[in-house]
Amino acid sequence: MKRLNVAVVLAGGSGRRLGSRLPKQFLQIGNRRIIEYSIDAFEKNTGIDEIAVVVNVDYVPLMEEIATSNSWKKLKHILNGGTERYDSSLSAIKAYENVDCNLIFHDAVRPMVSQRIISDVVSALKNYNAVAVAVPATDTIVTIDKSGCMIGKILQRSQLRCQQTPQAFYYKTIEKAYKLALNDASFEATDDCGIVSRYLPNEKIFIAEGDDSNIKITYRNDLILIKMLLGEKSI
Description:
Layout lengths: L3 E8 L16 E2 L2 E2 H11 L5 E6 L4 H9 L6 E6 L4 H11 L5 E7 L7 H10 L5 E7 L5 E3 L6 E4 L6 E10 H12 L9 H8 L6 E4 L10 H10 L6
Parallel strand pairs: 1-4, 1-6, 4-5, 7-11
Antiparallel strand pairs: 2-3, 6-10, 7-10, 8-9
Helix pairs in contact: 5-6
């Protein structure tokens, strides 16, 4: 039987840094909410079999309204998130514990993810149990010394990448990494690739090529840029 490719759209964030009362994934650009663009991308991709959305419990009714107003056929679950980002990942892991699948985690606030990126990630999952998406770093990255205001080291830019999402995993791989993480008293929240890298150090994480337009909406200026990329005239 074919292993399912499940897109998990992570929409549990509060949007505090954006300064909005409504979480940023539910803000509108044009006549659609940001999360709708993200779900659309996975709905359209032939390599995706199923979609689950993870939201804060307070916004489940709103997400249900959004789902009802769309014609998505692949959206199967609206799951409750938690206080931390990794709680959202865990919610999806629990929901699919009896399913032979790959989980493809994507930030709802990256509405410009391309079909090429999604397809490349799905293709890479045929050969790897963990797949990241990243773009080359364009700025010089430095570390700081103990004073906090002096350069420690200047890192070699050619070896640096800026991670995006999706981040994708064979179910048993991400499940095992989280089991180890949650049993570690020194566990600190990080992204899903970071958890696999730390707790399954022998597991290779393939890097699929990202795109500069696949930006994450964090601040208000990001909304302006997304608006431009979508060809809209105003926010």
